[in-house]
Amino acid sequence: MHSDDLGLTRFTVNLESQLLLERDLPAAEEFLASVGGMFVQREQDPPGKLWAVMQPRNRERAPFTVRMIWTVYPHRPPSVHFADEPGGVTTVTRAWPAADGYRASSNDICKPFTAEGHQLHADWASGPYAWSGTGNPLLYVLETIQGDIDRSDGRRAA
């Protein structure tokens, strides 16, 4: 793993988190397929580490590769980064979208749906920005990322 994993050099996902993530995966796969994306499963990745290829609505733009690491699903937000390819490094600036709150130069997303955002903003632990593990959080995160990518017309960070 990389240093951008919030110190998660080794992480394990408990059995309950694995089962709940597997429960929510089909709806997330269906959503990704509906927007021209897909999950990429790599044998070497532990449970809780997911790679998604996400296609902007503007089909002239290249797809993005999102890496999510869930430590406690669905009760905590995931670490979210962008990579140049599934399994690739998450420090390539051009791999990141030019969307508001997506800070390629800092290698983080300062938004309430990410572990990084919550690490930067302790005040998000409660109130309107608090993480909610209800519903299908995996789908929620993917829909949020897709919306952010589409609002930026699929442009990439410089």
Q: What do you see in this structure?
A:
The protein has 158 residues and is of the alpha+beta class. The chain contains three helices and six strands; from the N terminus they run H-E-E-E-E-E-E-H-H. It has helices spanning 15-34, 115-120, 137-151; strands spanning 38-40, 49-54, 64-69, 79-83, 102-103, 108-109. The strands form two sheets. A four-stranded antiparallel beta sheet has the order 1-2-3-4. A two-stranded antiparallel sheet has the order 5-6. Helix 1 packs parallel to helix 3. The radius of gyration is 14 Å and the shape is globular. It starts with 14 loop residues before the first helix and ends in a 7-residue tail after the last helix.
Summed up, the helix count is 3
Percent in helix: 25-40%
Strand content: 15-25%
Report the span from N to C terminus: 24 Å
* Average pLDDT score: 93
Profile the largest sheet.
4 strands, antiparallel
Structural class: alpha+beta
Number of strands: 6
- Which strand order spans the largest sheet, edge to edge or round the barrel? 1-2-3-4
* SSE ordering: HEEEEEEHH
Estimated radius of gyration: 14 Å
Could you say which overall geometry the principal axes of the C-alpha atoms support?
Answer: globular
Low-confidence stretches: 1-5
